[in-house]
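Sorry to interrupt, but I need a hand with the structure work. Could you write out one complete protein record for me, on any chain you like? Just paste the record in under my message, thanks.

. . .
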Amino acid sequence: MNALEAAYGRLLAACAAVAAGLVFAVMAMFTLSVVLRALVGGHVEGDMELSEYAMLLITALTAPWLLRLGRHVRLDVVLVNLPRRLAWVCELACDAIGFTVSLLLVTYGWRVLVASHSSGTKIVKEFTIPEWWVLWPLPLMFALVAVEFLFRLRRVALGPRQARVEGGQL
């Protein structure tokens, strides 16, 4: 199981690396647009729309990785003030809830994706593209998040009976 979890961690790191590449590409595209605007009055066609799609993909690729690193949004003011064992139970419960909600969102996202693909719905902006091209990252992201919640549950269950330390907290 440890080897599987390590391999999964490498997959999430690869997803984060792709997201970092997308951030760089968007930055380069906007820089080019600004330079073109200053020099010749033009710009990169569709730059705003492309950046919107890239931001969705960046979010989908980094969310499970951030969860794994404990760099997600976490309010633990209650946990740090609970008895250690009760805080541990709360960690287990929150991971179980996170897993369940992620599975629900995978199911819903998949249904919306299939419905969009079946109906042939298009997004018409500067580019005209099939809507499902924009929707496909969502069920993937929540599936990856669900798997990470399972690994989190395992780590907490096998670890010390206390709240986990995440995100650089002391």
Q: What stands out?
A: The two ends are 29 Å apart (CA to CA). The chain has one domain: 2-158. The longest strand covers residues 122-124. Residues 114 and 132 are 8 Å apart (CA to CA).
